[in-house]
Amino acid sequence: MNYLIHDRKPESVFRFFEELCAIPHPSYHEERVADYLEAFAAARGLECYRDKLHNVLIKKPATPDMKHSEALLFQGHTDMVCVKTTDSVHDFMSDALQLYLDGDFLRAKGTTLGADDGIAVAVMLAVLDGALTSHPALECLFTAAEEVGLDGAEGFDYSKISARKMINMDSEDLGIVTAGCAGGLRSTLTLKYAAVPFVGTCIKINLQGLFGGHSGVDICTGRANANKLMGRLLAKLAAATKVNLVSICGGSKDNAIPRDCEATVAVSDAAVAIACIKDEAARISAELVADDRDFAVTACETEAPDQMLSDVDSAHAVALLATVDNGVKEMNRNVKGLAEWSRNLGVVKTEDGKMEFVFAARSAMESRLDASIDELNALAALTGCTAAHYNRYPGWDYAPVSPLRDLYLRAYREVTGQDATVNVIHAGLECGIIFSKVPDMDVISIGPDMRDVHSPDERLNLSTVETLWKTIEKTVELLK
Does residue 17 lie in a domain region? Predict the structure, then answer.
């Protein structure tokens, strides 16, 4: 293939990353990447194990000088969050990502880049390809379906793993070593509605231009949630004129802050409705953070369908959107600036006689995840919905003693002349799953600088990839 990145080190890491970007790999569709990994291992005579979830484990023997050193596990996930701009025609199931350079950053045209966590895949491939001249026995675990509930990590057979030191590469700041993370769960509230004959004037409301982002990493930024703002608009509209919903569609992933939302409604007075929406949108615009400066709302008459939601079901849906807690629910009392408990209304969709409201809740405390379930169950009962809760995963507690963390901090200091920071995060990581399965595993999570992941503005800082690689090299050297 024709590579975009030239004359940048580490060359093999960038080459493998570009090859990955040419292979479609949405969550639950990682089979083509797994095929690629199996072929890679076979071509190099490496031991390879693949399970039915498309998790892949590849092992590489130690070099002679480190054959007595403890084995080391590298880990990252092969799926990516697939979000694109409203004008993008990219098909994540069939199209290669369109990469381009923006100064020292790598980006994708109109879509997420998938550096979360494609950069981990590329680093592991470089390691397995021989880029480390001296190393202990290496185990590289490529997990599937991380972005939709850490399904791959949950379903993997860890008896295949012998290492008790693990470097996860799903973090997004070069100078920060992650040493703990939140747990989380997904929830879906479903409203099965009664359709009635359409009456009134049909209005389409289009809300777009928000910045979006990762529902764990970016939840404290103050960026607005398009689905919640649509709830606010609809509540204001319902106070001004009679409203019946036809459909609502907003967001694409439960763990991404939604950037846009579209609602089609029946109103009794179109002029009043459009004026109301315009007025409330102006008030919202004045409240938003700078990241959301491109926020815009349009409302116009459109062709009426045959049916709409009943008065009761419309009122229930609007009430749910307008009142459900979204965003940071509580900050961590011990770590300044860290969210402790949050909820993201990531997806709202209408299809087949039902509306679905999909949430991602996060907390390091299991009791708060339980509380989120109870709250949504109560809201479901009040709004005529059914509630389902799934994909729950544990947090990862900070370990006061970690020899691997100490080695990495030393290596980072030797490579950069600076001290790295140790942190815990509000986002979920597979480290929590893996540590729960292998509780004597010494774990750290690292990564290069990535910004605005889970959004089409996602970008990877190329220079920090080189520094990350040098630090990994030095860490492995210190394992002798």
Answer: yes
